[in-house]
Write a structure and sequence with these properties.
Blueprint lengths: L4 H16 L9 E6 L4 E4 L15 E4 L4 E3 L8 H10 L5 E4 L3 H9 L8 H4 L14 H4 L3 H15 L9 E4 L3 E6 L2 H24 L8 H9 L11
Antiparallel strand pairs: 1-2, 1-5, 2-3, 3-4, 5-7, 6-7
Helix pairs in contact: 2-6, 3-7
């Protein structure tokens, strides 16, 4: 067993979750997993179909982007992951997908309104969508600037990445994160489902209003915080 096989295995299983939950097609999307003690992270290799993934193909890098272990090029989104890991020390896994309804909202450049209790079970705010990236940033270090775009949007809107663990990058698509790879992929599945529900709701009743605050608070607090009582 190699020195990094533990995080490579976690990364492999998380990336296979993208296909399992139909969050992307072909080679789209990627998940990374970081080991904060060793200051390395594992990520999907670029352009490799999910059916061809195995533990040997997972790439391990340090937080400066140097390959520590692996023989393939890492995901083209690697610099986005690095930037988020360096800025947000509380996150330990990042999932980027191209799921249909989440991308639809990202392309609309709209936040996803909080219409119901499924959304409120996971966060108390609209799912944020960033503005499209400026041309100068697109022409510069694009993937790193995608991370900058997310972090700056959270700062500007006073959003806490520990509470809001999902984001739509305008004209691009969804990124989610969490305390581990299970949570980051879970958040991507939830994000897609919320985006789908919101789309259907808006189609049924275009003038629909957001869910009332008492329901938001009730559903969020029964799952989160010291007074939560959902689950075993």
């Amino acid at each position: 067993m190699c020195f990094y096989d533990d995080i490579k295995l976690k990364c492999l299983e998380a990336n296979l979750g993208i296909k399992k939950h139909s969050l992307a097609i072909f080679t789209f999307g990627n998940v990374s997993v970081i080991d904060r003690e060793r200051n390395v992270f594992a990520i999907k290799p670029s352009g490799v179909p999910y059916d061809e993934l195995n533990i040997e193909k997972i790439v391990v890098l340090d937080l400066e982007g140097n390959i520590i272990e692996g023989f393939l090029n890492p995901s083209s989104d690697t610099k986005t992951h690095i930037y988020l890991y360096n800025k947000w020390s509380e996150i330990n896994s990042i999932c980027h997908t191209h799921s249909t309804f989440a991308v639809g909202w990202a392309q609309s450049l709209l936040n996803v309104p909080i219409y119901g209790t499924t959304h409120a079970d996971h966060l108390t705010k609209d799912i944020p969508c960033t503005s499209p990236m400026d041309d100068s940033l697109i022409k510069g270090n694009y993937e790193l600037n995608t991370g900058v775009q997310i972090v700056n949007h959270f700062k500007k809107n006073k959003l806490n990445p520990k509470e809001v663990q999902m984001c739509l990058v305008g004209s691009h698509g969804p990124f989610t994160w969490g305390k581990d790879e299970i949570e980051s992929v879970y958040n991507s599945v939830v994000l897609e489902e919320i985006c789908k529900m919101a789309f259907i709701t808006k189609k049924i009743k275009p003038e629909v209003k957001r869910i009332k605050k008492t329901l938001i608070d009730k559903h969020y607090k029964r799952k989160h915080g010291k007074d939560s009582y959902y689950g075993q």
